[in-house]
Design a protein that fits this description.
about 450 residues, alpha/beta, Rossmann fold, Dihydrodipicolinate Reductase, domain 2, 2 domains, ten-stranded mixed β-sheet, six-stranded parallel β-sheet, 13 helices, about 35% helix, globular
Length: about 450
C-alpha cells in the first residue's frame, strides 16, 4: 500500500467514525480522462465524498474510475443519466471546455451542485448564462481554479492587499515550454474509430472531419473546443492576479502572436503576448512562449507582481519577495538589491522599505475539493464560485478575441460588450449545432 492510499483510507475511516451516511456528499463524475482523473482523486481524499456515478465516453477511463471508487457507482456514457440519478447530490464536470456550459446548466436545473473544471466556458456568453443558472436554481458552484483554496497563496494575497509591495502597476504571467519542432504532430485524417463516440464528443461544436488530434487531451490546441493555453493555463494566472489585486473585469485588451515555429496541425498560437488594462493604473500580461523554454524572467517564475517597494515572484510551490533598492533620489537605482548590497546599505544606515522573504507551500486540488464539499453542506459560497470563474475565464477569452481581430478592444463589463469594435462582439459566442441548446 502506498502512502497516498494509506492516507486516503485513514481520511475515509476518520470521517466514517464521525459522520453518518446522510453526511456524505454523493458525487457524480462526468469526464474522467487526465484532469478528470485528477479531480476524482482529489475528492477521493475526503472520506465524506462518495462516488455514486461515473460517466465517460471511454471504457478504459471508466474502468480506472470504478477501481478507485468505494462501492459500485452507476456507470454510464450519457451524462444525462447522472443528472437524473436520485443517488447524486453534486457533480464534477471535467469534460472538454465546449461541453461545460450545457452540462453545468442542466445540472443546476436538475438540482445538483456543481464543481466544474477551468476554464469555465468556451465563450463569454456561455459564462454569463452559467452564472445566471446557478443563481436561478440556487446551486453551490465551484470552478476548478484551485489556487483559491491554497493557504500559502492566501498569504501572498494578504501581503499584496496590505500594501506590502507598495503601489503595484504591473502583474505578469508566463507559460513557457519548447514544443518545437513537432508539437502534437500532424495526425492524418481518417474515419473515426467509432462514429457515435465522435458525434457525442463533438456535441454542440461544428461537425468537422475526424482527426485524432482533436480529441481527448489534444483538443486544447483547437479553437472549436478550447481557448488554447491562454484559457487553459492563463485562467489560473488571471484569477491569481485578479484575486491579489482586487480587480473584476478589464477595461481594455490587446494581443499579438501566431503559429510561427511549431510544425503541427494546431490552431492556437505557439507565441503570444496579451495585455489587459484595469482601472486604477494597472496592467496584466500573459506571455506564451512555446517555441523556446528559456525562463521569462531571472527568477524563472510563473507570475510576478511589481510594486514600488518590491517584487513578488510566484513559483508553483513557493513565492519570493525581492525588495526594491533604496535610492537617495539623486538618481534612479536600476537593479534589485542583492544580499551584499543589502548589507552595505544597512551598514550605511539605510535599509530597504521591506524585507526579502521566501514562503513555501502547496496548491493542490484536494483543498479545493474540500472547500466544495463543505459548502455543499453549509450552502456557503465557495472559494471560486461561478461568478469568480466567469470573470477570470472571460478576461482570457477577450485576449483570444483581440488576437483574432488584431485589435485594441475596449470592454464594458456591465453589458459584456466591446464598445469600439462591433465586429469583435460577433466572437462572444457561436451558433450551436442542432439539436443542442443552452438553457
Amino acid at each position: 500500500m502506498t502512502r497516498r492510499q494509506f492516507a486516503s483510507l485513514t481520511t475515509a475511516a476518520s470521517y466514517n467514525r464521525i459522520l453518518g451516511a446522510n453526511d456524505r456528499v454523493r458525487m457524480g463524475f462526468i469526464g474522467l480522462g487526465n484532469r478528470g482523473d485528477q479531480v476524482h482523486d482529489a475528492f477521493l481524499e475526503h472520506g465524506d465524498s462518495q462516488t455514486t456515478a461515473i460517466c465517460d465516453l471511454r471504457e478504459d477511463y471508466l474502468d480506472l474510475a470504478q477501481k478507485k471508487s468505494r462501492g459500485t457507482p452507476l456507470r454510464v456514457i450519457d451524462y444525462r443519466r447522472v443528472l437524473d440519478s436520485r443517488d447524486v447530490d453534486a457533480v464534477a464536470i471535467a469534460t472538454p471546455d465546449h461541453w461545460h456550459a450545457i452540462m453545468f446548466n442542466e445540472a443546476c436545473k436538475a438540482g445538483k451542485d456543481v464543481y466544474v473544471e477551468k476554464p469555465l466556458s468556451l465563450t463569454v456568453f456561455e459564462g454569463r448564462r452559467m452564472v445566471e443558472a446557478a443563481a436561478r436554481h440556487k446551486r453551490v458552484s465551484q470552478v476548478g481554479i484551485h489556487r483559491r483554496s491554497s493557504k500559502f497563496l492566501k498569504e501572498a494575497v494578504d501581503l499584496i492587499q496590505s500594501g506590502g509591495l507598495g503601489k503595484i502597476t504591473v502583474a505578469r504571467s508566463y507559460h513557457i515550454v519548447n514544443e518545437w519542432p513537432n508539437g502534437i504532430g500532424r495526425a492524418a485524417g481518417a474515419p473515426p474509430p467509432n462514429e457515435q463516440e465522435w458525434e457525442r464528443w463533438l456535441g454542440p461544436a461544428p461537425k468537422v472531419p475526424y482527426n485524432a488530434n482533436r480529441t481527448y487531451y489534444n483538443f486544447r490546441w483547437f479553437f472549436h473546443y478550447s481557448g488554447g493555453q491562454l484559457t487553459n493555463m492563463g485562467v489560473h494566472y488571471m484569477d491569481m492576479m485578479r484575486w491579489a489585486l482586487g480587480k473584476g473585469a478589464p477595461r481594455a485588451v490587446t494581443a499579438l502572436g501566431g503559429k510561427w515555429a511549431v510544425e503541427d496541425n494546431r490552431e492556437i498560437p505557439d507565441t503570444l503576448e496579451v495585455l489587459w488594462e484595469f482601472d486604477g493604473g494597472l496592467m496584466f500580461s500573459f506571455s506564451q512562449y512555446n517555441a523556446n523554454s528559456a525562463p521569462g524572467n531571472l527568477q524563472n517564475s510563473e507570475m510576478e507582481f511589481r510594486g514600488t517597494k518590491g517584487t513578488l515572484y510566484l513559483h508553483g510551490n513557493r513565492w519570493e519577495v525581492v525588495p526594491e533598492p533604496v535610492s537617495d533620489h539623486a538618481r534612479p537605482v536600476r537593479t534589485p538589491i542583492g544580499r551584499d548590497e543589502q548589507r552595505r546599505l544597512e551598514r550605511s544606515g539605510r535599509k530597504p522599505l521591506i524585507e526579502p522573504r521566501v514562503v513555501k507551500g502547496t496548491a493542490g486540488t484536494e483543498a479545493h475539493a474540500r472547500n466544495f464539499l463543505d459548502c455543499v453542506k453549509s450552502r456557503a459560497k465557495c472559494n471560486c464560485d461561478v461568478l469568480e470563474g466567469h470573470l477570470s475565464t472571460s478576461a482570457t477569452i477577450l485576449g483570444n478575441i483581440a488576437l483574432k481581430t488584431r485589435s485594441f478592444l475596449e470592454w464594458d463589463a456591465r453589458t459584456e460588450k466591446f464598445t469600439n469594435n462591433a465586429a469583435a462582439n460577433q466572437h462572444l459566442h457561436y451558433k450551436y449545432r442542432e439539436p443542442y441548446r443552452l438553457d
